Amino acid sequence: LEDPQGLRSALFFHQQKEDIMNKIILVILGCVLLALTANCLSFNADYKARFLQMYNMIHNKTNGYFNPDGVPYHSVETLICEAPDYGHLTTSEAYSYYIWLETMFGAVTGNWDPLNTAYSTFEKYAIPSHNRQPTNDAYNPSFPADFAPEGNHVSDYPQPLNFNCKVGLDPLHDQLKSSYGTTDIYGSHWLFDADNWYNYGVMGDGTSRNGAINTFQRGPDESVWKTIPQPEWETFKWGGQWGFLDLFTKQPAPYSQQWRYTNAPDADARVVQAMYWAYTFAAQKNNQSQIPADKAAKLGDYLRYSMFDKYFKTIGSQTPCGQQSDWYGGFHGLLSWYYAWGGYLQPFQYPWGFRIGCEYAHFGYQNPLSAYVLSKVQAFNPKSQQGVTDWATSLDRQLDFYAWLQSADGAIAGGATSSWNGRYDPYPSGTSTFKNMGYMDDPSYRDPPSNQWLGWQAWSMERVAEYYYVTGDGRAQNILNKWLTWAKSVITFSGNQVVGPGVLNWVGQPDPWTGSPSGNSNLRVQTSGTTNDVGVMSSMAHAFTFIAAKNNDTDTARLAQKILDTLWSSRDLIGVVADEPRPDYCGNEWTQGFNQTVFVPQGWSGKNAQGAQIQSGMTFTQMRPKYPQDPQWNYVQQQCAARQTPVFRYHRFWAQAEFAVATADFARLFPNGAN
Predict the structure, then answer these.
(1) Distance (Å) of CA 449 to CA 405, 421, 580, 639
(2) If we measure between CA atoms, which residue out of 667, 652, 644 comes closest to residue 94?
(3) What distance in Å separates the CA atoms of residue 24 and residue 22, rounded to the nearest whole number?
(4) Fewer beta carbons below 10 Å: N end or C end of the chain?
(5) pLDDT tens digits, residue range 479-492?
(6) pLDDT of residue 637
């Protein structure tokens, strides 16, 4: 009181502190607003730079990831045989990863033009236009398809069509026609010849790139090494008298010229997933109108065909020509292995069309985030009468499916079928069931077993992790907590490689589903061998990133970061790589590789578009006479002759994109790094 000047100084100092604090608060708020607006998001600078470097490597034309039409190849390398039997084929999977890559580029840069280019490319080449599916008006939803039982072995084919066997009812056709004003299907085919290597062309022209082809047609025992490639536009120009049709089905002559396509549901669901994130990021800067959410919603509307039994028969039917369904009795609500559709070509005198769902549901195909988006996010709600309801049902069904299939160890087992042996045989005694579907270790195929690949764990659980991150759903959290403990226990590091188990084997089966998880003490996973697949490990890191971000889990974030850093350290000039031994090229317990005999019925003869004479006793390579012209062919032959395993460093498009997207998401969710 005796020092008014000192008091005034103190008051002035207090005011200065208030001003400073207010400025700090404004700076913090400004940073928050900046994170939500400028360039859409805030990113860790180092990992953002890595993403952009990966993006530029993928888009550098000299690196060979795309064909001249902007279509992504399955891989840069041409000599590769897995689901696609040649590297410069492409898949709907590759398209979906292309769209996801451009989503993250838009998030990082605010430029959505490349995403729209990617979606337009997908729509132009992967989704058949009307002239490539011209006769859908002849389709009768009251009789979706003629019944053809599946064989246990490739040698069981062709299988006879049973015209007298009743099938179920298709409830989607009228909904979709009413909503979109067309009988055409808005869904992607799964396999294309990006360089016209097989010479079938587009619509039978023999010359154009990006024609739709197919391979797998002959049951669960048909590995890629046993397939007979054929065009999806069948005019009898190649093959035998009836093209390739009488290799697969048996019926009274004449066969009909036709077109047909097969959808891979996990790929279309991944497109929806990516477009949701694009819409979310763009909306933060009020640019959501630049994202074609309506097209993703439409894609999801048609994707519901994968939620039905193959012949729309009542779920749990165990007689091939007996029990029928009402309009929704064939609805299992899960993303199955495929759906397919087709129709006749002129001048066949009897107009017809077909549509089928699929009896096999594999956990690896499920996508609860896309189910959530299509049922809960208004911009992505399908137009059709039942679209939102079906996806809401599917969301709950998928989460229950994961819980039912979770082993005591935490890894997720295979799946289930609505048609035992593909013939509606009775379920074997003691088979565990989920919603009247029978448990299978390895749904759809067993050469090699469909659920031995670690990638299914990484791919599918990454989607669960994204769903959990977005919604906080406790059901997903419970599944992820148990899975995460197992997944972290099987990932190790060796130099600049990330290593996981090469084979997953399954013992026992889950308990019958009663509405809640039981713990499945009798269902176990056993691991053997190793894999250092860069795509699988990127996807693992991606899953860990979302779990860590939601749970504020520093240890898991550090593991994700270590995986990404290790993979980055093993890059070459065009992407991330690892040495990949391919013993199957020479022959292993499953195949004789390039010398594998392909079953052709005795007496059948025809010629394919590469000029091979197709006949009984021929090999995989004889059916593909262009393969010996490949630059890596002599290397493979020399290694096999010396009893050495060929080793490759592949640049699969999906794997490179997965690493890039996982890196961008880590940069976004951990702008200060894992610490």
Answers:
(1) 16, 15, 20, 26
(2) 652
(3) 5
(4) N
(5) 999 999 999 999 99
(6) 98
Six-digit token string for 314: 């009542």
- The DSSP output letter for 599 is P
Q: How far is CA 376 from each of CA 296, 324, 328, 372, rounded to the nearest angstrom?
A: 14, 32, 22, 6
- 499-510 CB burial, b ≥16 within 10 A, e <16: bbbeebebebbb
Global pTM reads: 0.94
Q: Is 6 exposed, middle or buried (0-12, 13-18, 19+ CB in 10 A)?
A: exposed
Q: Indicate the helix (H) or strand (E) that contains 136.
A: none
Closest by CA to 527, choosing from 506, 561, 501, is 501
Q: What mean pLDDT do residues 574-587 have?
A: 97
Looking at every residue in the chain, the average pLDDT score rounds to 94
Give, in order, the Cα–Cα distances in Å from 589 to each of 64, 79, 447, 585, 596: 33, 21, 10, 12, 12
2 catalytic residue (yes or no): no
Tell me the three state secondary structure of residue 606: strand
Both tokens of residue 3?
Answer: 């020092």
Nearest Cα to 108, choosing from 52, 66, 164, 167? 52
Q: Is the pLDDT of residue 373 over 50?
A: yes
Q: Is the dihedral of CA 595, 596, 600, 601 positive or negative?
A: positive
Q: Rounded distance, CA 121 to CA 127, Å?
A: 9
- The Cα–Cα gap between 642 and 653 comes to 31
3-class DSSP assignment, residue 338: coil
Going from the C-alpha of 243 to that of each of 190, 193, 225, 253, 259, the distances in angstroms are 21, 18, 21, 13, 12
Q: Which residue has the tokens 């193959």?
A: 310
Task: Give the rounded distance of the alpha carbon of 437 from its chain centre.
Answer: 22
Q: Which of 85, 266, 309, 533 is catalytic?
A: 266
Look-up: residue for tokens 């939620």? Answer: 307
Task: Report d(CA 378, CA 17) in Å as an integer.
Answer: 47
Q: Using alpha carbons only, what angle is made at residue 361 by residues 355 and 363, rounded to the nearest 5 degrees?
A: 145
The answer to whether the Cα torsion of 136, 137, 138, 140 is positive or negative is positive
What residue has token string 């292993």? Answer: 588
In the chain, the amino acid numbered 320 is P
What is the structure's pLDDT at 1?
Answer: 29
CA distance 495 to 105: 30
Q: Please name which of 408, 218, 376 lies closest in space to residue 297, comparing C-alpha atoms.
A: 376
Residue type, 172: L
Residue 157 DSSP label = P
Instruction: Work out the pLDDT band at 19, boundaries 50, 70, 90.
Output: low
pLDDT band of 81, cuts 50, 70, 90: very high
Among 92, 134, 162, smallest CA distance to 311 is for 162
The contacts found for 122-125 with CB under 8 angstroms, 24 or more apart, are: 122/95, 122/96, 122/98, 122/188, 122/271, 123/295, 125/69, 125/71, 125/95, 125/192, 125/210
In whole angstroms, how far apart are CA 624 and each of 127, 602, 616? 27, 20, 15
Say what the pLDDT of residue 567 is: 98
- Residue 291, CA distances (Å) to 102, 220, 286, 611 in order: 12, 39, 11, 45
Q: Give 623-641 as a DSSP string.
A: T-TTGGGSTTHHHHHHHHH
266 is an active site residue:
yes
* CB-neighbour burial class of residue 323 (10 A; exposed 0-12, middle 13-18, buried 19+): middle
Instruction: Spot the catalytic one: 77, 93, 170, 533.
Output: 93
Measured distance CA(528)–CA(535) in Å, rounded: 19
